[in-house]
Amino acid sequence: MSLTPLCNFIGGKYVPAKTDKFVDVINPATGRPVTRVPLSTATDLDDAVKVGKEAFELWSNMTMKQRAGIMFKFHELLDKHSEELVALIILENGKNAMEAAADIAKGNETVDWACGLPQAAAGRTLEVSRGIQCTESKEPLGVVGAIVPFNFPVMVPMWTLPISLVMGNCVILKPSEKVPMAMQRVSELLTEAGLPAGVFQIVHGAVDIVNAICEHPDISAVSFVGSSKVAEIVYNKCNALNKRVLCLGGAKNHLIALPDADVGMTTRDVVVSFAGCAGQRCMAASVLIVVGENQPLIDEIVSLAGKLEAGQGNGQVGPVIDHIARDRIVRYINDVEKSTTGAKILLDGRSWGQTRPDGFWVGPTVILHKSAEDAAMQDEIFGPVLSIIQVDSWDEAIAIENANPYGNAACIYTEKGANADWFTKRFRAAMLGVNIGIPVPREPFSFGGLYGTKSKYGNCDITGDGAMEFFSNRRKVTQKWTASYGTTAAPAAKRAKSDANSSGPADKANFDGRM
Ligand code: NAD
Fold it and tell me: How confident is the model at residue 493 (pLDDT cuts 50, 70, 90)?
């Protein structure tokens, strides 16, 4: 059966890409293709940028309130069409139905916040010297590019779109070629909400189109979310061209359980964090550091994770995205069997793949380590694998977390506030949880790891307050007006004389040395 390929979304219409190269979009549960996505060319991008630049004239001249009004309608539409989007996310990504619904609902929370930007992003005016006012406003940048990963087909694009759009920018999105369908449908909902043609566009593709976005002279800013390797490439390319760029990369998130942690709550939370979304969350638990002897906690985690069932849509844990991901995860588990440092597999998820050879399945896996240097303790595996290590002291626990090259999320499990405080002051990661294994900061707080680590390249933020900064330029206008004393306007000649004599109050202030 030949599959009809997806089109780009340019100027408010579906437009076939000018390419003869396509890749299959695969249902990860079955391994079978469901559609094809074009590997667009630089010419396709050029077309979108031209249209985007024209649309920017109209869009940036609308008031922020008008733009937010369209986003408000879009918010309703996203909610109304949630079920059909859930079906697409299940098909292309493999999430279960609850996870797919959360993908949309969480994305829509950012839309919701963006509707309030007319208040949050309002400018400010201050009399900076007597008679002299300085006004600052946040002005849109122009056409911006957004490059996104496969793991949250709607939520991650929604980190960028609503805020950058309401700020007045036009956006060109490059969805992950593995999950292009949900956002294709979302583009129709944006149009239905009243977004003018060309304000939001989609150019499909992979490496080449990412490079073209970074290099295009008329794309003012690029936001990227994905692996650290590609984040670094995109960051360096854009920086070399003095382009504004923000790249969120990978993660290796550490959870620490103190002896006083509630075993039942900690168990449930850790299992949801490491096995939910098949471990394909940048916020997923990756390493659990158990302080002191706590065999009951380890036993319960293994027992609960071992009861999870496989299934697409209605299961508890879905497949991983593709055969590359499955093989990578399985390699880490295989390596434990050859461990020279005493690592042991406590729960082995490889059996899921053996009984379901057609899709890309790996079940929840728990590994007990004796060395923090083991590869599974160090690398981002991005699958449902939890590495556990036991240590004797708080200092040892925090040293392991601090030594990792990422800086995304971390969590402390304890019943005592002062204990939690000790850890939250010392963690390296930027998004911290106390008894919450997926500590996502919601707006107005910004999402993102620590700048300068493998989790974040670039300043500002992708959501929340910091995103207003990223998607705008601060324009400062300093004004001084000299009153023409009296009830009728002074004749021009008299006014000129008055100005030349610097007789207004503001000028006096200047001569008084108050500037
Ligand atoms: P990825 O880096 O492989 O792909 C991300 C995007 O980059 C895709 O659109 C892809 O087409 C493009 N791309 C891939 N290889 C490229 C290359 N060599 N040159 C240019 N572009 C390229 O990431 P992924 O596998 O789609 O997503 C998983 C990764 O994303 C994980 O590392 C995960 O931690 C990370 N992630 C991070 C966050 C965060 O907020 N920090 C959020 C979600 C996902």
Answer: low
Residue of minimum CA distance from atom 14 in ligand 1 = 207
How many angstroms separate the alpha carbon of residue 123 from the centre of ligand 1?
35
Beta strands in 197-263 (DSSP E): 200-202, 219-225, 244-248, 253-257
Q: How far is it, in rounded angstroms, from Cα 212 to Cα 48?
A: 12
Residues 6 or more apart whose Cβ sits within 8 Å of residue 233: none
Interval 25-49 mean pLDDT: 97
Query: If you ran DSSP here, which 8-state letter would residue 65 be given?
Result: H
Cβ-count burial 320-351 (b if 16+ within 10 Å, e if not): bbbeebbebbbebbeebeebeeebebbbbbbe
Mutate to test the pocket of ligand 1, among 26, 210, 227, 463 (most ligand atoms within 8 A of CB): 227
Q: Ligand 1: distance of its center to the CA of 363 in Å?
A: 23
Looking at residue 498, what is its pLDDT?
46
With cut-offs at 50, 70 and 90, classify the pLDDT of residue 490.
low
Residues with CB under 6 A from ligand 1: 147-151, 156, 174, 176-177, 206-207, 210, 225-227, 230, 233, 248-251, 282, 380, 382, 408, 449, 455
Dihedrals φ, ψ of 135, to 5°? Answer: -115, 135
How far apart CA 344 and CA 353 sit, in angstroms, is 20
Amino acid letter, residue 204: H
Tokens for 451? 């700048």
Indicate the top mutation candidate among 93, 225, 360 to test ligand 1's pocket, ranked by most ligand atoms within 8 A of CB: 225
- pLDDT per residue over 77-129, tens digit each? 999 999 999 999 999 999 999 999 999 999 999 999 999 999 999 999 999 99
Residue 256 · residue 291 · CB < 8 Å: yes
d(CA 322, CA 419): 41
- The confidence band for 252, taking pLDDT boundaries of 50, 70 and 90, is very high
If one residue of 151, 283, 450, 454 were mutated to test the ligand 1 pocket, choosing by the most ligand atoms within 8 A of its CB, it would be 151
Peptide bond into 441 cis (omega under 30): no
* Confidence label for 497 from pLDDT (cuts 50, 70 and 90): low
- Specify the ligand 1 atom closest to the Cα of 211: 20
Q: What pLDDT digit, counting tens, does each position of 291-304 carry?
A: 999 999 999 999 99
- What's the one-letter identity of residue 220? S
Tokens of 131: 């008679």
Amino acid type, 326: R
CA dihedral 447, 160, 458, 433 (to 10 degrees): 10
Q: Which residues are catalytic?
A: 282
pTM higher than 0.90 for the full model? yes
> What is the tens place of the pLDDT at every residue in 176-207?
999 999 999 999 999 999 999 999 999 999 99
Give 309-348 pLDDT, tens digit per residue. 998 878 899 999 999 999 999 999 999 999 999 999 999 9
